[in-house]
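hey all, quick one before standup. I had two proteins in the batch that finished overnight and I want to keep them in one place so we stop losing track of which output belongs to which input. First protein below, input sequence then structure tokens straight from the run.
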Amino acid sequence: MKISIWTLLGAERLPTESRGKLGIVALLYFIQGSPPAILWEVLPVYFRLHGVSLRAIGGLRLLELPYSLKVFWSPMVHRYGDRRIWVAACMLAIAIVVGILPFLDVTRPGWTLVTLLLIFTTLSATQDIAIDSYTVGLVSREEEGAANGVRASAYRVALVFIGGGMVFLAAIFQWIWLYLIATIIFAVLALSTFFVPRLDLPAQAREQWLAGFVGWIGTWRAIPLVLFVLSYRLGEFAIGPMVKPFWVDYGSSIWPDKAELMTQIGLVPTTFGIILSVVGALAGGAFISRYGTFPGVWALGFLQAVSNLGYALVAWADLGRFGLYGASVFESFTGGLGTAAFLAFLMNVCQKEHATIQYAFLSSVFSLTGRLVGGVSGLGAERFGYGNYFALTFLLALPAFALLPWVKGWIHEDVIINPKRRILPFDNDQC
């Protein structure tokens, strides 16, 4: 039996035009994932190697609060200009910031570094608004499963290419050259947005942005939705900032040579790990295309939460390199599954003509508690130890699942089940 990439994506039923849209989605989310590759994959390793404390590394995650506040300036992106211009301008400015970073003294983080990182995250958050809005408007309901697998995968490919590449090459090249190469790549990505077709919002939707938002969120039904979005990725955000420092601290006893340690971090949790998360995201998108968004949200999300216990077992039982490898593999693959499910949920509950503000609101909500928890993650790891803290992050992920009965009604998923047990969503552009 011949299996194509479209079959793996759950997109074998989609027309050629839809497959072209998936290519556009892949480019946009590679662009979106490039700045976080610096924030999440490179800077924790870079700071730890320069002697920055766990407390300070975790605290710097508070500078990512613009991702949680972007809803406040999303109306500006919604009302004015071409969304491609917003993406290009933000990426060019981000490229400049990345080019400045290696010339700063990070051994004692000061206000200059803090300000620069705050500018960086604000630009990245603004770019996210434009990309998410464009994508929700571009993709039809029947394309959402495959599109969310692609967007989660492309995002992670950026983490591999930019983040894993820089960490891996740090064993060979000086950091300054790596940051300058990243600057050039970011500038090229900014220019590539002009190859994406223009997609305009209706004039009425631009003018009536407030009515569209209030009418969508202004009921009691929004309370469980907001609570669910707040808590669904809490465990992931809590463990994320401490994974790479754990590799540095735990791995230093396994690989005493710093160059070998850097190679291991660049290959396993970063490059190979993110490749596995890409596979997981594609598998998650295919699962959702076949079985629907709601089954994906609870089944795939729970697997992602359980994966946090893998690192806890490594720390508690001192499982060595192979235990570390196993925890990384499980966490990376299930992370892709859970992300694809959550992205599908966010896209599904938004109205296409008002997606700029609605999606910005939801993504701001889910990242708010995440940034705050991430900001104190270093304190938690220092206070409880790595093993106990990683177990605690699993418990933080559980409350969201108790809310599932109340959020199910938000999911637009009229389905039929055929004899092959495939679930086919009807197309409807309204939530």
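OK second protein, same deal, sequence then tokens:
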Amino acid sequence: MNQRALFWMPVLMRLGLVAVVMLAASFLWSGVIGLLFGFLLVLILALIQLNYLYRLSLWLENPEQVKLADGFGAWTDVFARLYRLRREDEKNRHELAEWLSRFRKAMSLLPDGVVIMDDVLFLEWCNPVAEQHLGLALERDKGMRVTNLIRSPDFIDYIILARYEQPLTLTLGERKLIVHLIPFENRRQILVTHDVTDAERLEQTRRDFIANASHELRTPLTVINGFLEIATGDDFIDPEVRRQHLQLMLEQGKRMQHLVEDMLSLTRLESIDYPVRAEAIDMHVMMEELKRDGDALSAGRHQIKLLVEDVELAGSNDELHSAFSNLVSNAVRYTPVDGKIDVIWRDSEAGPQFIVRDNGIGIRPEHIVRLTERFYRVDKGRSRASQGTGLGLAIVKHVLMRHNATLKIESEPGKGSAFIAQFPKVITLKA
């Protein structure tokens, strides 16, 4: 039996019952009384149907607030079906909301930015990474045209000309992005952004390192090869000239050796294959060694003073000695004759501090942020004259990073500088 028959059978049975009742009433009460009874019965049935229709209309207008009636007769089945549909709809909406929540959470954890737009480029949704990349704010910008929010001629051309086959390289401030627009569905578009700033900076650092290392090695090699050509080309060279040539070759050979040693040290410090070997360090002994080395390098041209407090330190003695020695030797090289250099080991509220303070030539602010870069030199001529390799502060930075410490530089041109190695109260060593 089909669905239509199941619906109409009880309706016809009820209509038949009403007809039987009216016929019985006509036999019992003839004339006007029988007609009135039949009319009243039909009126009651009509009012019942109208009541259910009214309650159904109220429920349809506000299904969240109005309770669905139990129903009578055929209405029982109608309301039961509506109730089941309502429950299924609530279940589907709950599942959809849960799925949407999981989707947004997953999109929020992506390392790339994701922007969802409609077919006319109005913003519908974006994840936090896209907000950072493009300077958007979902609560503020939702419903606005993306081309009005991202004011870049290259981006606008990419969108308007629909050049979607190739991604767009977009520079916004200091951030470099790879942007790709992906049309999907009929009225939606996805904009994906990938930040390549760090990768570009790393690649530039690699290129600079190779170029600078090649340049630093080329100079001493040129000197050595030049003197060797002279030595092999002339039958007679004055002994004094020969001695000077040999001395210069020895100095350039040592310069190359120091440079290679520093490069190997940096490689080892950056490698996870060489974890820090922690040990208790006698800072009094180390500070005395640093002063002796500084005095030897200074040859009496500077006043080097020590201030040592009883503060314990644990870490790699060799690495920390190398880092501290670099700071002391830099102070000696860049402080004029008769200058003063203070070498300090003390405690502070933040933790132990190693400080090298001088009254030397100082450093301009624009150079301070780049001092720990490999081969970076404030004054290239002066740095080479002082026999520096350009890697000392890079080594200091990586040693301190392995000891969970930081390097702070304070300087004023013409008045001097202070290099502060700040250690935490409790040192957590890094591999």
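Flagging for whoever picks this up: The mean pLDDT is 80. The CA atoms of residues 381 and 403 lie 33 Å apart.
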